[in-house]
Amino acid sequence: MLRLVTDDNSFELEEMDQQDVHPDPERQTPTPEEPDGAVNDLADETEGTQATEMPPVSLPLLEALLLSTHHPLTAGRLAELLDLPSTKPVRSAIKDLNQQYEAGSRSFRVEQVAGGYQILTLPEFGEPLKKLHQKEADAKLTKAALETLAIVAYKQPILRADVEAIRGCACGETIRSLMEKHLVKIAGRAEEPGRPILYGTTKRFLELFGLNSLRDLPQPENFAPPKSVT
Fold this sequence. Notes:
The chain is of the alpha+beta class. The protein is 41% helix and 15% strand.
């Protein structure tokens, strides 16, 4: 028997004989009824209670898993590591953790990033942390790289020619540098003569900027959000 952990559900796969199974009417248990034909719903209430019961989750262990990784962990992966049948207990435990952090005035929360969960500091601590990491950030991305990355993020999927038209200069080397940093990727080819390459951002881009999806990018008024690039 093989169990697969999925989003809020678990399925059991087993080999079954290929034969017709016919129910035996004599062995069927009738539903107990109250007088005047009222159905006794005690069994249903019991089943409903059992369905809502979730296995306990070790909050210290969940916290340790989130602290020990530099990348977001999906609910499915956390359920697998915690040996849980579904992701429901994980989501509930994350809420409990955040309530504890809030009650204790901690400087961080568990947030959704790039489709997974990660412990991040609160926005009010952004400026001091920015000063701490400013030199490191400057060394990683130049002004030209940030401008190019912003254009790709908001306009993707986009041709290099269109990026260069917006910036007013050649961007080939900059795009290549962003691809080496795993922030930009080839998102396909345009349906036009020559089939030029289209560029888009990566999952690493979402992780680096603390975004759960492209729709979380700051949106100016009357600006359509970028399309998702798979």
